[in-house]
Every structure is written in C-alpha cells, then in structure tokens.
Amino acid sequence: MRKGWIVLGLAALLLGFALLSGAFAADRLLVCGVCDKAFYETAVKLVQEMGLADKVSVKKSSCLGACAAPPVIEFKGELYTSMTAEKLKALLKKAYP
User: Fold this and answer.
1) Within 13 A of 36's CA, how many CA atoms are on the CB side?
2) Which of residues 75 and 3 earns the better pLDDT score?
3) What is the DSSP letter of 25?
4) Rounded distance, CA 49 to CA 47, Å?
5) What contacts 33, CB < 8 A, 6 or more positions away?
6) Whole-number Å distance between alpha carbons of 97 and 20
C-alpha cells in the first residue's frame, strides 16, 4: 500500500514540475505591436484557421528591434522580418507538419 502512495506522489511531483516549467505550454508567436499594429490580427486569424490555437499562443510584443522591415515576429527564438500572411503560414506548416 505504501509503495502505491510513493509512486502516486512522485507522479504528481513530476507532473507539477512539468506544468511549472512550461513543458505543456504553447509556443509563443510574438508580433511587434509597435512597427505594424495590423499584423497581430492577421496572425491570430491565421493560427485559428490552421487549427493551431492549442499549440501556438499569439501575443503582442514591444519593439523586437527590427523596425526597418516590418511586420516583425519572433517564433521559437528566431526573428522574422517583412512578414506576410503567406510567409507565416509556410513557417507554421514547417513547424507543425
């Protein structure tokens, strides 16, 4: 009986750690809200249309430092400039085949 409680406790501890560390969190897609205010809506719509709302979280960001070539996004640690809906769709298809 005691072994069952130990196993259950360890499983709960590991699950709690995974949740706190963001292991089950959606990938963040940051859209620069300074350079181009309209692209945020485009990104949200595209993520929803592709059925990726549970995998990708679209957030507005402050300046991402590439104002010369808007719209600018950051996805999985990479910065992308001169973004279009078509480019974003291709990027998401590659990330989530």
Assistant:
1) 21
2) 75
3) P
4) 6
5) 40, 60, 61, 62
6) 27
Contact 31, 61 (CB under 8 A): yes
* Strand pairing class (73-75; 56-61): unpaired
Q: What is the pLDDT of residue 11?
A: 54
Tokens of 19: 């949740």
3-state secondary structure of 4: helix
- Can you give the pTM of this predicted structure? 0.73
Task: Measure the CA dihedral 71/94/45/39, to 10°.
Answer: 0
3-state secondary structure of 5: helix
Tell me how far apart the alpha carbons of residues 64 and 32 are, in angstroms, rounded to a whole number.
6
Q: Is the pLDDT of residue 85 over 60?
A: yes
Pairing of strands 27-32, 56-61: parallel
pLDDT digit string, tens, across residues 41-68: 999 999 999 999 999 999 999 999 999 9
When pLDDT is averaged across residues 66-94 and rounded to a whole number, the result is 96
